[in-house]
Amino acid sequence: SRRGSLNWIVGQWLDRGEDSTITTACSWTKNGKFLKRSFKVKIDEEVTLEGDQFVGWDPVAGQIRSWTFDSEGGIGEGVWIQDGNRWLVKASFVLADGSRASALNVYTHVDDDTLRWQSTNREIAGELQPNIPEVTVVRQKADASESQDSEKEESQ
Q1: What does the alpha-carbon distance between residue 151 and residue 149 come to, in Å, rounded to a whole number?
Q2: How far is CA 116 from the centre of its chain?
Q3: Across the strands, what pairs with 4?
Q4: Closest Cα to residue 137, out of 14, 22, 43, 18?
Q5: CA distance linking residue 125 with residue 93, whole number of Å
Q6: Residue 26 · residue 11 · CB < 8 Å
Q7: What distance lies between CA 145 and its chain's CA centroid?
Q8: CB of 13 within 8 A of CB of 139?
Q9: Which residues are CB-contacts of 40 (< 8 A; sequence separation ≥ 6)?
């Protein structure tokens, strides 16, 4: 199923850089039609950008697409193309100042707890930007108290 092919991305993810961390929480929406990915970028422990992305099947386009909204007022959309264990996401954005940006983002499903991410072909306002080299993103294990809470809810 189309849904199953993106199931591996559900969960809490952490991308820890030298001075920045990006956390992403991903879950299915109520009817299982869309994935909601909420992200937070922290630089030196301060949140500098956050936002939400919805990923789902677009019946008109006949493909998986995404829509992103960030805390600066930026709006983006993407087309998701599966290539084996990788997803190629052709993304285009309108930044808060009205300038346009685009990129090709690649998500590689390494294993249940690991994905790799990179961003290439990046342009902002027609200017080519440096690639973001591939980084490894790891699944966050829910701590014991959280998992007990969710078990309680399920048993009620």
Answers
A1: 5
A2: 11
A3: none
A4: 14
A5: 10
A6: yes
A7: 26
A8: yes
A9: 22, 23, 24, 47, 49, 50
How far is Cα 100 from Cα 20, in angstroms, rounded to an integer? Answer: 24
* Cα separation of the two ends of the chain: 30
Q: How far apart are CA 126 and CA 120, in angstroms?
A: 14
Cα of 141 vs its chain's centroid, Å: 18
Please give the pLDDT value at position 141: 86
What is the total residue count of the chain?
Answer: 156
Cα pseudo-dihedral 149, 151, 155, 156, rounded to 10: 20
Tens of pLDDT along the chain (156 residues) come to 566 689 999 999 999 988 899 999 999 998 899 999 999 999 998 999 999 999 999 999 999 999 999 999 999 999 999 999 999 999 999 999 999 999 999 999 999 999 999 999 999 999 999 999 999 999 998 765 544 444 444 444
Rounded-to-integer distance, Cα 149 and Cα 152, Å:
5
CA distance 63 to 72: 28
